[in-house]
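Deliverable D4.2, example record:
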Amino acid sequence: MASVGVLSAPGVPGRDTKTSIPLPSLRSNQGDYIDKSSTRWMRSTHPDTPLEEMRWRYKEDGYIWVKNVIPREAVYDMREQYACIATRSLTRMGLMIPYSYFFQFGHTGMLRPGTSPRKGIFNPSSDPNAHEGIGGLPEEATEKLLDAAHADPYYRTFLAHPALRAFIRHFTGWKQEVIVDRAMLRHNCPGSKSTGIHYDQYFLRDGDDEFLTAWVPIGDCAPTGGGLMYLEDSTSLGKDLEDTFLERAKHLPKQERIDAFNKFMAKDGFMSHDAVEFRERHEEKVGRWLVGDYEAGDIVFHNPWMIHAATKNEDELGRIRLASDLRFYEEGAKLDRRWMKVWTHDDGL
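Output generated by the structure prediction step:
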């Protein structure tokens, strides 16, 4: 993204979101709640912010959280359709099921009875561990459901939303962007396992390292609702860690060397599940954990090295966190061809 990489600080002052509002207590999969002195609100950016300022923020912060990129109703249509996708997909497989997609992740039902799939409220009488998606240990029937959802035409069309694509070209200066086919839909019920600590580059090692990740919350997502949190000033640490991983693996065959699950990496592909321990281990190089109060239509764009994780979903309203992870390259860049296929549960990536 050469057009973003050589900027000095512009004259437009930055704006921190909710700086006067106390932060809630946050935690990751494991460990204690993060001390509030080690957390901070993310900085949000409005789409009308001057382009120079947006590019400087991305370079300076490692991310840019842009408000209202996609129309709110279009995002909630996608959230509701997440329920319908399974109905269409399983009907094609010859299976008769109840209307709701979420119901299929456990015999007791994922959605609270009497609530709308558009709201996505978790059934508090259900075991959240029985409703795991990507990154969990779903049953075989659920794996088929997840595979079908990722290939569904409605989801693939959502990924090409004109407002999303137009903003990416505007922000990067690319004439044409290429999205990797292996986009992912992740749901996270209150109380279930969330995404561990990582940076994206080690999953896409066989392509150029100038891709752009877009994290799209599909519905409102409170700070305690399982959304992403970013480790402040962690881009340099991400690069240092990757250099170390690659040095250790330099004698491995190529396919093992680029594998995010090789013998020098963690078993599940994450560097840790304990946000407190990880930050303390690297506290001389990084700042605080940053979090946002995300709304439907927002998108967070971040660089390949920015270290991040999801908060534990302890949403007060019981909402299921649903989001999509997208990666974009400039047309003509070297792609990680392993990612140029639709996600399936057994693709090994």
